[in-house]
Structure prediction request, 553 residues.
Amino acid sequence: MVSYLVQKGSKLAARLARDEEGAILIKTIFMLVPLIAILGIGVDMSRAYLYRSQLSGALDAAALAGGKAFHSSTRDDEITAFFENNFSSDYMGGTLDSFVITETDAVQKTLTVTASGSIPATFMALFGYGSIPINVAAETTSKTTGLQLVMVLDSTGSMRSSAGNSSRMTALKEASTTLVNSLFGNDPSSEQLSIAIVPYVTTVNVGHLLDSSYMDMSTVPASYTYDANDLNKWAGCVEARTTNASLNANAYDVQVEHQGQDWVPFLWRPHYDNHFYSLPGIKGPSGENWPAPNYQLKGGNGEGSSDAGPNINCPAPVLDFTNDKAELTNYIDGLYYSYNRGGTIANLGMIWGWRMLHTGSPFFNPVPYNDDQMLKAAILMTDGQNWIIGSRGKHPNYDGQNSSRDNRDTYDDDGDGQCSRGCRRSRWDRDDENNGPRAFDARNGNGIGRYYVGDYSGYGRRDLGRMGGAKTKSASTRAIDKRLAHVCAAMRGAGITIYTITFGSGATNPSLQNLYRGCATDRGKYFHAPSSSELEGAFEAIANDLSNLRLSR
Prediction:
């Protein structure tokens, strides 16, 4: 009986043991199901993370592009292009459901870009989830931080030339207005933004800004005082200070500070058509009274090759720094090409642009260099080669009388004594003592005898050789280019960001383009604009580059 009970107990125990092993297997199977699900969800979530990361990066790039072009008419197109270049709609087999651009704050220039999409689920599909939805947003705020910008603009006579449907000057005004509108946006003014404009030809009109203590009026007739409204008087242009070939410390024309030498008022002093007016009181180099020649003072500045007056080739007065958008756009709208006389001397425009930004004399700009909160920048634009127009001829038979043969004139561009660009009527100054034509040097008030008489520039007449001895067209180009490169290098060294533009068919010379490319802070800040539309694009690109952007989310 006992043995029977033991046998039955052993069988029961064996059966119970077999039942426990089955339960463990069943339990194990039930435990594997959630583990597999968790692993599957992990795989799907990893795929969703990769999709979201790619989508987010594309949105950030698109938002930044939109911030740079916030006020551009093509802004949304640029945003879309950046997004599509960085994200494929079928990425990872997914579907892009929406892409939305929203201007959330026009005043603060805040832009929001959102996108939603989905990717097909794999393991999660076993649990009824066919796809995984993904939503991403990016926001950018375009902030024009502290900026002082000076625009140094070519206003020479060649700016009257055609640039397609309008003149080059019209194209420049439209492009400059685009830049101002882009920087200011919808704001009528900004405490963090100020712009000055320096038109240049062969001189710059800064007389209204210069303190009288910086002016040398010793050789100027007392009647020739500053009066912007009386164009028979001084309009405000000044001559370059003296220079030398080596551009050392005594080359005052390339020195930004007022030191060592004052500025002399610009005074064009030719005859015209035998109608004369007397300006008394001119002193000779030793202080003695010098016989006053007759100067024709034709009313107005004059325009073109046949006009005269003391302010020929004196451009519009520079516009001092202002943060008023309307003042800037009105000034730009009133810009004009000066006169088809004299040439192009870009280094004088650029040095006065630097003086506007300079913390020392003559203007004492209060914003220091290399201020983390304020960028100093300059734009230099030209439509052609630097040069000074040469002599307008010398007539050996000139006898001091007003005979018909004395009313001939050769236009000698290259200093070879030949008429190279057509003959025009004579504009001689009179040298009463030597009974012949003379060139007049406004710096010392002295006639220099029988000589070629040419257009007057910031460096006087080219024949005077006041620019390091340069007296020919090619020599004047080399001298101006050398001075411009010197000024640009000094400005870059001071921490000023420089943008340069060559514009139109007259600016295709490789040496000119290399000069302006080398003047810019880097190669990306030089632009050649063959057409009006490309000039507008260059100014818009500069405005975008000047905008300091940050992703706020």
In short: Confidence is low (pLDDT under 50) at residues 270-306, 393-452, 549-553. The longest helix spans residues 2-68.
